[in-house]
Amino acid sequence: MNCEEIKISLHDFVDELLEENYKKEIETHLKSCNNCFAEYKKIKKFFEKLKSLPYTIDPPDNLIEQLTEELLKIAESEQREEESKPQVNIKKFKREQAKQEKILKNSRGVFRKSRVTKSIFTTKISAPLSPRLGLDPKKTILTLLPLVLFAVGYFVYDFSLINSPWKVRTITGNVLINGQIRASERWEENESLVTENDSKAVIYVPNTCRIEVDANSFLILNKAKDKGNRIKLVKGSIRIINNNLLPYLAIEIDNSVIHNRGGTIAITIDDNSITSVKVEYGYLEIEEKGRVFFVDEGYTCEIRPNFHSGTPHRIDAPDELKDEIRSLDYEFGGDSSIQKIISIAAESDMLTLLALIPRSSEMLRTVIFNKISAYYPPPAGVTLEGIVKLDPEMIEKWWFEIEWQI
Amino acid sequence: MENENTNYVTYLIELSQAGRKNAFFDLCKINLRNVFTVAYRLYPDYDKAQQITLRTFLIVWENIKAFDPKKSFMLWLKNITIKLVLKELMNSGASLNPIKSKTMYVHDNERIENMIMNLPNEDRIIFVLHDIEGYDYDEMKDFLENLTEDEIKSKLLDIRKQLIINLGL
Question: Which residues of chain A does B24 touch, with a Cβ-Cβ cutoff of 8 Å?
């Protein structure tokens, strides 16, 4: 290659687009030609300058606020669109349903088995396994094989989910695992973990989160399995910091189960067995006697023995609101407490009001619906009628709609 | 391109796909600077770049359910931004108003940014996409349909040569 050709190829050389033999040819040329080497150095210097350009440029400060407004507009227009859709023609719907059922009826019965079943019924049995049972061993094995394979596969899968022992790191003092101070600091299924007056520890839940355990705490590891990790907090304080994809950690307390759904949560059980749950970031789900409800970021809730879980409220809610919630939850305040809560509640307390709907009379549900709607109009598919009838899907949908805006 | 999403980003994408708008906001916050930077370098008008950034995220929100979290989310965002910029430039027709050049620059970076922003539209797009955003010629063809790979390459070499001269290297 001559100098002109080299100069043309220099950019490809810098871009690392050349094949090895060309690359070597240019390298050899550059070593012997000062002119081309000077050209190469210019290009190199240019790219060094480009590399020093800032990777990003500061966007305007209000861009996120603008985005929020735009998304709100979209949500509102979606809702209008949903409302303007024509109602389903009930008669037509029923007629179609009847047709569908007729097809189903025709496909059932002894003479209309599925292909597989039919072939089993009609195949001539050539070599019975036992004369009394009249079973073909080959057919029986072939029929049972998928089931056996499925069972074995499931067993292997289930076994692979086991993730114990969990690693425990002592921060200060002594940590007792199953009553002993263990050098290995490993926590196995069905073992207890106790921190003393001055001790603290961190537990690492594989692929899920870490748990900071405060002094005077008592925990039991009930299940150490991916997608099914479960601990019981008997007393003390823990803080859970999620550091992975969808976390699977349930914390049993008294009659409730707290499901960590991502973020950072703190749980404390005091000497009177009163549990306090605080969500610093993300949200969690509390499951209690078949009832499930959410506690959102910046919210807290109390769980007392022999009572339903308390109403979630903002951590920084005014004392007046907190007192009224306590009166409703634990002093049988009833509808009069709910009315006071409705009147005190500010815009940021709408998730508290939403949580009160299942505990209110039908009349008060309408009042709550109207109050929440004034701040956060119900999204498409959520209606007054549905909320008054406590449709769980509608309540959940509205909860998510309010949550992101709060 | 391989998946560059962190576990956290994948997690936020999945939550956004389930309709969680606050997770989507977190995704926006994470990627806001990158998207705005691409928009601004390709369309050097602060207000317009802001509008394009907003529209990018709104398009993403409308289509997020169809997005495969195994693919690079950042690349998807960038591609949408680039397409929006090209559409805007095509609609605006004429070249953009030149960015005022200063007589003195405190830092070389400022001077280079200014030179890039004052390149003609097509040149600027070719240069920013290849030399700053790291797109290869094949990928650039998707955006610059009226140019062949060789034409893009030849234009890029000319732009580089001009910039090298302007920088006094």
Answer: 71, 404
